[in-house]
Every structure is written in structure tokens, then in C-alpha cells.
Design goal:
The structure holds two protein chains of two kinds. Chain A is built from 17 helices and 23 strands. By secondary structure, chain A is an alpha+beta fold. Chain A is globular, with a radius of gyration of 26 Å. In chain B, α4 packs antiparallel against α9 and α9 packs antiparallel against α11. The chains are: A alpha+beta, B mainly alpha.
Chain lengths: 536, 292
């Protein structure tokens, strides 16, 4: 016993040594380990319906799914012009741009340790196609097959030079085929009826479904979604945050939060709101043109409305709108949308070609339509604010414009969910809507053609306008930039003349982040790429 | 005899009614409430501009030209606040009257007939009371669909049970009194007894409750409109205007003035209700009974 007894002085020295040793170990733990400790907060006005990558199509879902699932290609920072390989090691395309071979990295595995192979990619792509959901059109006319364990062949019926850009979309994120099948998922035909994996993918139990640096921990379409690091992430750029919280916040609350926030990002501030925080030294305030286009549509389906398919009625609407006053609702920096393709994309219409208000023409067309005395409901998502533009304000401005031309318009606001469902079901007669690009290529905007995704929603089936459909067919196979620009402009001019859509405005994109973040930039595809953002 | 008669008259004139109304809160409440009623009735003559006209520069701060500023669409906020009173005040009056009528009838029948009628109606009342009013009103408004009419109906659904409960209690106590029993023994019908002997005795407390409820109704209606379930755009309604203002915090005047309108109206009806309660309360010095 005596051997362990020490003198008081020695004990004090030992105690001091122990404290120093502990401090050294602790400091080593802090500096030596890369375990993330910060929380990234992303404030966003939610419109998410699901986080199931092959079903999801909303921008909020892209933020979430970018963290959880890897795609063949991705973008760096805010660049949308150059898709960069992520899961793909190398790739080649046939001369006619119809057949693409993608060779996958061999070191990728899902969060449960299962290796990611071509079978998972084929399963994910076929699941997307057969679910017949909102993003299914991304692979329209594309057949998927595997060549060995690590090569995937995509064959497109028509030339599809935009395929690498398309493959950056989070809806084409690769899921763990074994796990998803086990939880009711299928990639077979009839998936729209038989696939039961959505609920599981929307829960924290779905850890292992993706190969991204983050895992889904908490999921709510109304309050917040939480991501935590994937401890078995295959890549070199590990999760930089202990937690990523994506919160549902209206723009005014985002404005307050960001000013006192730490590691925080606000995506939906308006240009007016951005003006108020420009001088704040803790914040990075960036503005630029948004890729969103806000538009109005009149359903062409006579079974939905007896008024809105009338071409005179549509002409009256087109020329009754005071576009300058509509644009003013979106604040400084917003511009009138001359066509459906945003100003920064190939094929966008020059601003001088934008429709101008012509009340005389509008009133004459309204009188000819015979709809002047009838009350028409204008439907809009009353709780949705995008780029700081509340749809409620936009709807009131549109109503005032139309009423000034003699229309009888009643506003019918609904929650985003209700509005979205009715719009997507093609049952909305007259409504406000918006379009954000799925990939930065004008090809995406052929969705507005008769019989295509949005065309169908507006009651415009295939065969409704052979002239525009002929142009669309030409656009699909045109590969040279100059020729593409010409044909897409022709399409939009025709769309502005006879289409059931009325492009309104292109708002300002404001992106605010606290200065304690690096790589926090706006990306139109992912809003903010949570895998690239890191604390300073 | 003449001395006693004189004293009773004196109490009625100077000792009973006047002091209650001389209270500062009662006076303030009356003035503000009457003020809002006047504003609501004469809105088209008072409002400087059309509340729906988007003709001015948007988001102007309060100035001589626009005392309450303009909103994000260039509408005059003062005119909208004035026209907003045409929704909040009359709708609140209407729906409180309706709730008092339905609740009073149910409570009266329950208290008078007792037994099965009482048991059944009071269980229904318990059922409604089990839910927080705003939640129940939101559910009803959401089921019926958005709009002012449905929001008002939703508020009636949540408001009537308090009247039923109060009236039932009063009818039970009044029903046991000797003069009611003697009236019934003399052959009065149930309807006659209820309306001639019982009703006058329950009217006072119901009036107090209704006045206090007016404040609740204005608040609830504004709350539903704030949540998008009540008045729909572009109608000027205080709750939806506050919701608009919440979208534009940087332009404080858009939400503040309609918020103040709600605040003053609610406060006024609360003051009025309190004063009425004091008036009918025998325990207060200016109330009835043995106060003096």
C-alpha cells in the first residue's frame, strides 16, 4: 500500500500533469478528428410532397435528396453549364447522341455498406420511368440496360444531347435496389400501382437507401427535415455538418432568422427584403436572375371549363395584363418573361419581343368571346412564396388587371398541396403557376407542348396544334447551338400566339448566407448543394 | 310608503345605471365601440380611397397623402382598415347573435325540460368544449371550405355552447323559484313560462356574455382570415391584412394598422362586457341587490 502513497507535493504535481495530459488529449480530439460539430440551417418556403427521389420533383426535395442520394453527374457551385461526373468514372456517347455508355466508379457503396453497381442504377432509372410520376418524363423515350457490373447503357429514341445535364437531377439519384425492393419498391412496369416504398423512403428507417454523405433523420413536409452524416460515406468530401436542418419558413421569418443565425442560408428572400440587409457584415447577400418563370394559364379542355378554351378569351387575357405592374410585385431586379424559357438559357426570347398590354384588343377579344359577363375563378397557391413573391399578391394584381379590362374574376386561393394536386390532375380551369428548370437546357421547356407534361395539365393534348408540335419535333433533334436557338424562339413565338399559357415574370433570385459558411452559393438545380457547403 | 318609492326611484336613476357607465373603462369601451360602428356604417364616406384600387405607388410609408401608408400592391391602408371594419364588426355581431340564439334555445330547453333533453344537449356541449375553439373553428372552416361565410359558421359552431351552458344554469335556478312554479300551477304553457317568466331573468347575463364574446368573435374571425381560412383576397379584412403585413415585415405599416384596429375593437368590447357584467352583478356597489 505504501508504494502508492505519495507526498502532498508530488500529488499536486501529478494532478497538474494529469490535467495537462487530459487537456492535451482533449485538444488533440478537437483538432485531430474531423467529426463535424456544426449545424447547417437552410430556411426554405416548403413545397415538398415527398423525398422519394423517383417521385419527388419539387425544389425542396432536391435540397434533401442531393444530400442523401448520388447522381451520375453533378454541378460545382452555381455553374449549370458543365455537368461533372459524380458516380460516373467515364462515359461515351454515340455520334447520333442516342446511345450513351456510362462506366461507374467501383468504390461506391450505400450507407449500409452494399456496393453501388449498375443493377442499382438500372433499378433506379426504370423505377423512375415506371412510377409514371412527375419526374418520369426526364427519361421519356429512354431505355436503360446494364453492361456488366459497372456499366450502364442509356438508349434514347431521339437524339438527346442533354442527357448528362438531365442526369444531374436528384430524381435520378441512385437508390439501393435490394433495400428498396425489400420495402415494397419495384422497377417493373405497373410501378405506379405496385410500388409501395415511398413511405419507407420518407422515414428515417430508410438509412442505407442512398450513397450520399447524409442520411435522412427526420422528415416532415410542413415543419422541418433533418439530415445527419452518413458515417460510411464513400467519397473524400465527407459530411461537413453534424446536422443539416431544412426548415419551412416564410420569407419574412427567413429575413429575421438569417440576421441572427449561425451557419444559415435563406433562399426565398425577395429583392426588397435583400435591400434591407445589404449592409450587414455578417451576411453574404447575392442577387441574380432567377430561373423560375411565373405564368398564368387557361385550360384548353372544354370538359373543365366552357370559357377558358375559347381562343378569344385567351387573347383577351394575354393583352389585358399590365405586365409592367405585374413585374413590380416581384420588386427590383425582376423582369417580364417574354416566353417560357428563362433569360439565361439558350433559346430565350429577346425582351423586346415580350407581349405588351393592349386594352383595346383585349376588350374586343373579350366581347367576341362572350365570356365578359361570366365570373371566372383564378386559382393560386395562397401560401406559396417563391423568390420573395407571394402568389397571393400576384393573384390580386392579375385580378385587378383583368377586371380593368372587363373580366369578372374571383380569387380562389388554396394550400400548395391542394392547388398542386388540382393543377397536376389537369382539373384547374384558370390558374397561376410556375416552372423551374429540371435541367438547364431549353429541351426541358418542351414540357409545355401539346400532349407533354404541362401541356396536358392545361388541357392541350397532342395534335392540338400541329405547327408547334412540328417545331418541337425539330427542336428535339437539333444539336447545333445556333439552330437550337432559332427553333426554340420560333416555338415560344407560336406559344405566345396560340398557346394556353401567359408568361408573366422572371423574379430575382436572392441567396443569403452567413459569412461563417464557405461554398454556400445558389444552384438552380439543387437550390443549395448541402454536400458542398462547409463551415469556415 | 312614498319615502320607500322615492328611494327605489333614486337608486334606479342615479345609484344603479349611471355609476357603472361612469367608469373610465366603460366610457372608453363605449366610445371606441360606437366609433367602430360609425366607421363601419359610414365607411364609403369616411374612406379616402377605394380599398381595392391598386392605383398608388406600392409600399409607401405613412404620409400626409396616405396616413397609414400603402400596401405592397399600392392600395391605401387606411381605406382598407376602414372597410375592414365593415367585415369584422357586423359579422361578429351577426354570428354572436346567432350563437346566442342557438345556445339560448338549446340551454333553455335543456334547463326547462331537464332529463333526457338536458343530458343529451349538455353532452353535445361537452363535446364541443373538449376542443380548443380556434382548432375546432379551423377544422370546421377547412372542411366547409375557405371563405368568410364558412369562417363565420365555424365560429357559431364553437361559440353557441357557452350560451347553452349559461342559459341552462339560469333556467334551472329560475325554474325552481316560486313565481315560476305558481305560474305553471295556474296553467301557463311551457312556452309562456319560458318567454314571460324565465327569459327576462336570463337576458342580462346572456347580454354580458354576448358582449364579451363579440371581442372573441372579432379575434377568432381575424385569426381564421390570418390563416387564410376566412376572408379571401382582395377583400379588405383586418386578419388577412395582418397576414399580408407579415409577408412584408420591412414595411411595418401594412400589418400594424389593421393589427391596431383588431386590438382596439377587441379591447372596446371587452371593456363593455366587463362594465355590463358589473352592472348586472349584485355584488358591486352599482349593481343591483344589496349593494348599497
Amino acid at each position: 500500500m505504501n508504494r502508492f502513497r505519495t507526498r502532498p507535493g508530488t500529488r499536486a504535481a501529478l494532478a497538474a500533469l494529469a490535467i495537462l495530459a487530459t487537456a492535451a488529449v482533449a485538444s488533440g480530439a478537437t483538432t485531430g478528428s474531423s467529426a463535424p460539430s456544426a449545424t447547417l440551417v437552410v430556411d426554405r418556403s416548403f413545397e415538398i410532397k415527398t423525398a422519394d427521389p423517383q417521385r419527388a420533383f419539387e425544389p425542396t426535395a432536391a435540397i434533401v435528396d442531393r444530400g442523401i442520394y448520388d447522381t451520375f453527374f453533378t454541378y460545382k457551385g452555381g455553374d449549370l453549364a458543365h455537368p461533372r461526373p459524380l458516380l460516373v468514372q467515364s462515359w461515351s456517347a454515340s455520334r447520333d447522341a442516342k446511345t450513351f455508355v456510362f462506366r461507374l466508379r467501383r468504390n461506391v457503396h450505400f450507407a449500409d455498406g452494399t456496393p453501388l453497381t449498375s443493377a442499382d442504377a438500372v433499378f433506379s432509372f426504370n423505377r423512375l420511368i415506371n412510377l409514371k410520376g412527375n419526374p418520369s418524363f426526364l427519361l421519356d423515350g429512354v431505355t436503360v440496360s446494364k453492361r456488366g457490373k459497372y456499366a450502364v447503357v442509356l438508349h434514347s429514341k431521339t437524339p438527346n444531347a442533354a442527357l448528362p445535364s438531365i442526369l444531374t437531377n436528384t430524381s435520378l439519384g441512385i437508390v439501393n435496389s435490394k433495400l428498396v425492393r425489400k420495402h415494397g419498391g419495384t422497377s417493373a412496369a405497373g410501378g405506379d400501382k405496385n410500388d409501395k416504398a415511398e413511405k419507407w423512403l420518407n422515414s428515417s428507417a430508410s438509412r442505407g437507401a442512398g450513397s450520399g454523405p447524409y442520411l435522412l433523420q427526420r422528415y416532415s413536409t410542413t415543419s422541418q427535415i433533418t439530415l445527419v452524416p452518413n458515417p460510411r460515406y464513400w467519397g473524400t468530401r465527407k459530411a461537413a455538418f453534424k446536422t443539416v436542418v431544412i426548415r419551412n419558413m416564410i420569407a419574412p421569418t427567413q429575413l429575421i432568422n438569417i440576421q441572427r443565425g449561425k451557419h444559415e442560408v435563406a433562399i426565398d428572400l425577395s429583392a426588397d427584403q435583400a435591400q434591407t440587409i445589404r449592409g450587414n457584415k455578417r451576411l453574404n447577400v447575392k442577387t441574380g436572375p432567377s430561373t423560375w418563370i411565373f405564368w398564368l394559364f387557361a385550360n384548353n379542355n372544354s370538359a373543365i371549363s366552357s370559357i377558358t378554351p375559347n381562343k378569344q378569351f385567351q387573347t383577351a387575357v394575354r393583352y389585358a395584363l399590365d405586365y409592367r405592374s405585374i413585374v413590380s410585385v416581384a420588386g427590383p431586379g425582376a423582369i417580364q418573361a417574354p416566353g417560357m424559357i428563362p433569360s439565361m438559357f439558350l433559346g430565350s426570347l429577346p425582351r423586346k419581343e415580350a407581349i405588351k398590354q393592349n386594352l383595346t384588343r383585349a376588350k374586343a377579344a373579350l366581347a367576341a368571346s362572350g365570356a365578359g359577363s361570366k365570373t371566372i375563378q383564378l386559382e393560386f397557391p395562397s401560401d406559396l412564396t417563391i423568390n420573395g413573391v407571394p402568389f397571393a399578391s400576384l393573384a390580386q394584381r392579375v385580378q385587378a388587371n383583368l377586371q380593368a379590362a372587363g373580366f369578372h374574376i374571383e380569387l380562389a386561393g388554396a394550400t400548395v398541396g391542394t392547388w398542386l394536386q388540382k393543377y397536376r390532375d389537369g382539373k384547374m380551369a384558370f390558374g397561376l403557376s410556375l416552372w423551374g428548370p429540371d435541367y438547364p437546357d431549353p429541351l426541358d421547356y418542351l414540357a409545355f407542348m401539346p400532349g407533354e407534361l404541362v401541356g396536358t395539365r392545361a388541357g392541350w393534348p397532342a395534335g392540338s396544334d400541329p405547327a408547334i408540335e412540328k417545331l418541337a419535333a425539330k427542336a428535339r433533334i437539333t444539336t447545333k447551338a445556333g439552330a437550337r436557338q432559332t427553333v426554340y424562339r420560333q416555338i415560344q413565338r407560336r406559344l405566345n400566339a396560340v398557346g394556353p399559357f401567359f408568361p408573366l415574370l422572371q423574379p430575382t433570385q436572392v441567396f443569403v448566407s452567413t459569412r461563417d459558411l464557405k461554398n454556400a452559393v445558389f444552384n438552380a438545380q439543387y437550390q443549395v448543394d448541402v454536400t458542398q457547403v462547409a463551415p469556415r | 310608503m312614498s319615502t320607500i318609492a322615492f328611494r327605489i326611484r333614486a337608486r334606479r336613476r342615479g345609484g344603479r345605471l349611471r355609476p357603472a357607465w361612469r367608469q373610465p373603462l366603460a366610457l372608453a369601451g363605449s366610445v371606441i365601440a360606437v366609433g367602430w360602428l360609425v366607421v363601419a356604417i359610414f365607411a364609403p364616406f369616411i374612406a379616402p380611397h377605394d380599398p381595392l384600387a391598386q392605383t398608388f405607388a406600392p409600399s409607401q410609408s405613412p404620409s400626409g397623402a396616405h396616413l397609414f401608408g400603402t400596401d405592397e400592391l399600392g392600395r391605401d391602408v387606411l381605406s382598407r382598415v376602414i372597410y375592414g371594419s365593415r367585415v369584422s364588426v357586423p359579422v361578429a355581431l351577426l354570428l354572436v347573435s346567432l350563437a346566442a340564439l342557438i345556445g339560448g334555445l338549446v340551454g333553455g330547453l335543456a334547463g326547462y325540460f331537464r332529463g333526457l333533453v338536458d343530458g343529451f344537449s349538455m353532452r353535445v356541449v361537452d363535446l364541443v368544449f373538449a376542443f380548443p375553439p380556434i382548432i375546432l373553428a379551423m377544422v370546421v372552416a377547412a372542411v366547409l371550405g375557405r371563405g368568410l361565410r364558412n369562417a363565420a359558421l365555424a365560429i357559431v359552431v364553437v361559440a353557441w355552447p357557452s350560451y347553452a351552458r349559461v342559459v341552462r344554469g339560469l333556467v334551472l335556478s329560475v325554474g325552481d323559484s316560486e313565481y315560476v312554479e305558481s305560474a305553471r300551477l295556474l296553467g301557463s304553457s311551457a312556452r309562456r313560462t319560458l318567454f314571460r317568466d324565465v327569459l327576462p331573468n336570463v337576458a342580462g347575463p346572456v347580454l354580458v356574455l354576448a358582449t364579451l364574446d363579440l371581442a372573441n368573435a372579432i379575434l377568432l374571425l381575424s385569426g381564421l382570415s390570418f390563416l387564410g381560412l376566412g376572408a379571401q383576397p382582395p377583400q379588405a379584412e383586418w386578419g388577412s391584412m395582418v397576414a399580408d403585413g407579415a409577408q412584408y415585415f420591412q414595411w411595418w405599416w401594412i400589418g400594424t394598422f389593421p393589427g391596431l384596429a383588431i386590438f382596439t375593437a377587441v379591447l372596446a368590447f371587452n371593456f363593455l362586457g366587463d362594465s355590463l357584467r358589473d352592472l348586472f352583478d349584485p355584488q358591486t356597489s352599482w349593481g343591483g341587490g344589496d349593494g348599497e
